[in-house]
Amino acid sequence: TETPCVIVNVQRTGPSTGQPTLGAQGDMMQARWGTHGDFEAIALVPTTVQECLDLTIEAFNLAEKYRNPVCVMTDGEIGHLRERVVIPDEKELKIIDRVPATIDKEKFIPFTSSQTQKNSKIPDFPTFGTGYHIYVTGLTHNIYGFPATDKQKDHEELVLRITTKITDDREKLTMVEKLQLDDAKIAIVTYGATARPAETAMEMAREKGIKVGMLRLKLVWPFPIKEIQHLATQVDKIVVPEMNLGQIVHPIREYTDGQCKVVSVPKVGGEMHLPHEVYKHLEAK
User: Fold this and answer.
1) Residue 117 confidence (pLDDT) above 70
2) Residues 184 and 271 in one domain
3) What is the CATH number of the domain that holds 207?
4) E strands, the chain, where?
5) Between residues 127 and 231, which one has the greater pLDDT?
6) pTM of this prediction?
7) 173 FRET partner, CA 20 to 30 A, in 55, 90, 162, 224?
């Protein structure tokens, strides 16, 4: 149905009820692969309380722009934090509204890119109650919205459109923070709460003369392929601390393609990494 929505996942230690008040990062792959069929996910990952606000606003913007669910993948550690937050003036907020349908109602086709105002794969969004005909179904449908469960071509066209509308903008969607990477020979790739002890570990290594930088992922899906590919040509080793048994390390290994060493630093049990637990992998040969 290409219905925009925002899902906030404050990840706790699982599986099942697990450790319900303790933080983890065990749902990162769920955000990407947690449904059947081919689709593309958008998932943002805040590291501070300020980013919980800022990235949630961005999540609503992206949901409206792409007509797609967007996940905000925070965790129990960030969820329990109290930090100073600057609430922006409403007039300063960047708000992206859905593109309304303007074509003649009799000619309107709800799921086609040929009628969009911006020559986009994202269909214009008519407002309910304004006279536009919209047929909504969870079944495979054609461009008119009617079920087409036995039509291979309709299914192919639908799935290609709803996936490429995201992947075509992969580089536009990429959101990363880079710290001290200009001369780095070792990089930490991190996200969420884990970035906090990782940054301290980086500073500890720098004090010892070890050239370490950090790439923090603020948007994990769609995956920032080019950022990781470039990083692999720059450093000898990438260290990936995660509060799970290793999830985002897998696409990192895929896209580094053997060009550098990739070291997974997993931790479970409802506790964050301590800086020295990350640091020991930075000083190791």
Assistant:
1) no
2) yes
3) 3.40.50.920
4) 5-13, 19-23, 42-44, 69-75, 176-179, 186-190, 212-217, 219-221, 237-242, 261-266
5) 231
6) 0.94
7) 90
